[in-house]
Specification:
Elements: H1 5-13, H2 15-25, H3 27-32, E1 35-39, E2 44-48, H4 63-82, E3 89-100, E4 108-112, H5 115-128, E5 132-141, E6 147-159
Length: 164
């Protein structure tokens, strides 16, 4: 964990600052209503509502909106461990796998508990300069705890070379 990890988590928890970040950097997620509900260094919970802007013609949440929330639950953990890292580390989604179990007809909550995996991989790439891959799991459930979907998001991390 870097000295800035907690600072980034506090920024994500700030309702106005985080919504401004979404509006300017991820406008589709902002419009769909994707929100971080809980976050710390090891776990992140993100929700996506079932509403007019996030629904498909079959009266459920569109898979792309579910995917945005699942990706954010993993990516937020990675970004927390990358924030102001030295050397800087780039991150990129290289693979997404998903399985759907039930129609999402209400708010869906995606939980990722792989913060330690991200922390270790980022530290390794900073130490060695070699790319590291992490496949994180995000499980989506409804208010009653029924499993809606399961995502596996694969991230690549690589320390950027410094110009000395």
């Amino acid at each position: 964990m870097t000295p800035y990890t907690d600072k980034f988590i506090q920024l994500m928890k700030h309702p106005v600052k985080f919504r401004m970040f979404l509006l300017f950097r991820l406008p589709a997620a902002f419009l769909a209503g994707v929100r971080i509900r809980e976050v710390d260094t090891k776990r992140c919970v993100v929700s996506v509502p079932y509403k007019w802007l996030s629904q498909n013609p079959f009266h459920s949440t569109y898979f792309a909106c579910l995917s945005m929330a699942a990706e954010m639950s993993t990516g937020s953990l990675a970004m927390a461990h990358l924030y102001k890292s030295n050397p800087a580390v780039s991150m990129l989604v290289v693979k997404v796998e998903s399985e759907y179990f039930k129609k999402a007809t209400a708010r869906t909550y995606f939980e990722c508990v792989d913060g330690k995996l991200f922390e270790n991989a980022i530290q390794e790439t900073m130490n060695t300069g070699e790319a590291r891959i992490v496949t994180a799991q995000s499980i989506g459930t409804d208010n009653e705890g029924n499993k809606i979907a399961e995502f596996y998001i694969t991230w690549s991390f690589k320390a950027k070379k410094t110009n000395a």
